[in-house]
Amino acid sequence: MLQALIEFAIIYIVFRVVERKKDDTIITSYAFVIYVLPKVLELVIVLEISKLNLPQIFLVIPIIGYITIPALVLKKFMDFSWKRSVSYGVFVLATAKITSLIMVFLIGNIQSS
Fold first, then answer.
1. Helix, strand and coil percent figures for the chain, each rounded to 5
2. What domain range is 106 assigned to?
3. What pLDDT digit, counting tens, does each position of 13-29 carry?
4. Which residues have CB under 8 Å from 92's CB, separation 6+?
5. For residue 89, which of 110, 109, 61, 68 has the smallest C-alpha distance?
6. CA-to-CA distance for 103 and 2, rounded, in angstroms?
7. DSSP conformational letter for 57
8. 3-state secondary structure at position 64
9. Would residue 79 be called left, alpha or beta, if left means φ above 0 and alpha means ψ between -120 and 50 degrees?
10. In the structure, what pLDDT confidence band is assigned to residue 34 with cuts at 50, 70 and 90?
11. Rounded to two decimals, what is the model's pTM?
12. Residue percentage of the chain with pLDDT more than 70
């Protein structure tokens, strides 16, 4: 839960700083949507892959989802260019994966102490 809060805070702050001219409720809503939808997709796909014993190559789907979902949402509803929308998608992916790695290292260090 702490990891999700940290990830959302980072995405929200960056989105808020870059999109200064937009309304705060719009920024909060879209920051939430571009973070939560890929996260839920990842959870569902990972659970189904493990339940159905599918090959690990299917784990590429959530990574693609982390880029395409924010890009499509921002392109469709906020009229961003494709380049800008995809760059936000890459940022969401990078934030999620880097935060996950940091949390794994912190939890591993705490448990080994």
1. 90, 0, 10
2. 2-112
3. 888 888 887 777 787 88
4. 11, 34, 35, 38, 66, 67, 70
5. 68
6. 9
7. G
8. helix
9. left
10. confident
11. 0.82
12. 99
